[in-house]
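Schema walkthrough. Field components (list of strings):
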Amino acid sequence: MNTPIQTQLIDGKAFAYQMTEQVKKNVAQLQKDTGITPGLAVILVGNDPASEVYVRNKTKQTHKVGMRSFMHMLPETTTQQELFNLVQRLNQDPDVHGILVQLPLPKHLDPDPIIQSILPSKDVDGLTAYNAGKLTLGHMDGFIPCTPLGCLMLLQQELPKLRGLNALIIGASNLMGKPMAQLLLNAGCTVTIAHIDTRNTEELAQQADILIVATGCKELVKGSWIKNGATVIDVGINRVITSDKKVKLIGDVAFDEAVGKAGKITPVPGGVGPVTIACLLYNTIQAAQKHVKE
Amino acid sequence: MNTPIQTQLIDGKAFAYQMTEQVKKNVAQLQKDTGITPGLAVILVGNDPASEVYVRNKTKQTHKVGMRSFMHMLPETTTQQELFNLVQRLNQDPDVHGILVQLPLPKHLDPDPIIQSILPSKDVDGLTAYNAGKLTLGHMDGFIPCTPLGCLMLLQQELPKLRGLNALIIGASNLMGKPMAQLLLNAGCTVTIAHIDTRNTEELAQQADILIVATGCKELVKGSWIKNGATVIDVGINRVITSDKKVKLIGDVAFDEAVGKAGKITPVPGGVGPVTIACLLYNTIQAAQKHVKE
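Field assembly_structure (string):
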């Protein structure tokens, strides 16, 4: 009776490649039309190894599409005022169209006033109150955080119609869960947001046509949690050491158990990750294009 | 087995009275300390009878707590530019601490650019992108739309602990459903937002510890939809004509059916309505107090 479902992998890498190629064309066109090269400034404070990998990867991709990249690597000892001053300088710099502060910041720094001091028109991470509010109000002309934007694009590609589907988002962060809820609401889904205080996450998951997991808890979601045929988007990236002492990336979903239950699923790695970076490039070219229009 | 539940009425009128008395004291204190009288400007365009009732009621309450009220009643023929110019003047007027544009506007006017042109520091309805974003990001120092703020206050009074409860909000508007979801998320609830495209609203309602209904559909929610002992907040205000040709207000919940099922419920009228106006006064005194601090 319970024939296992033929689970289809969602190829984030291929999707990101296509997006990136399109951004590359748009960059070339903008340069041809206006002489302007889009520029992305990335600020990294301290020496967190994972953040360094992310930042290096972002820089590499930025160059690949023909954009300028401005890397600001600040020492662990940077003060709040110094960081604030740097954001102010980048706000005023006409060569910088997007500003990204790599999170988390060292503990002695308060991220929020820093993030909120970024000009909304350069806030390619979509984290200022103005851009968050635009999204909440359903105005799609602000900047949308890259990870939920990427998840939405993948869902739009994979599902012919989102309207009316039941979506569960596990994780309620400002960077992912909350903007994801707004995007899916705007798309007509019935949206539930579960989090650390939720009492019946498993039961809620079993009712979800779309299951999006962004918790940072490795393999939290078991196969038995997944509704037959559901579309599963795994946003988690967790590093584990295998028995032969290699580093392996695993998601927030027990992938092997999900296969045969989910209709479609994003793998880790190769799912949401590459699309997130493609969305950052997408937001940056948008910022440069808007800058030209103003 | 199914002993009917002793349903308790949530007395919004009494709650609003207490809130209003507190605002009155704060207004007197502010005048004593600074000589400043908080002022609320209300803009009404056209002759919608329901809007006229609301606006009159707001003005009356504003005077009751010792605030100034500036009523701007514009003709149906007002242009977008004229309305925009008025908002600009009120933005600059030091006697005006709060600005409210009564919705809906006549059809030839586009409400959104008007709302977005209100200074965030005078946006006592919490509808600008900046204030909506503040709420989304969990920063509680912006202005929160009055109706969901009132619902939250009622819930906080009625339920000892919101954290971990399952809440269903039916209706996903910018004025009510969306900010309500943010408030309940911030309070630790597991939140589901249902709307016109939702396929299984009844089933979702049956799982909800907290059920908030803001649809404008009279008596949409039947008694059978309500989980035993749930707390029900009815935001609907629908006018019906009774058999003896009197106007009667009814809610979005079939009240008579809900009694015996819900643990607590707000009546219509006398539930959410008065608290909404009290929250408007609360936001306005906050605006005046912040203005003094700046």
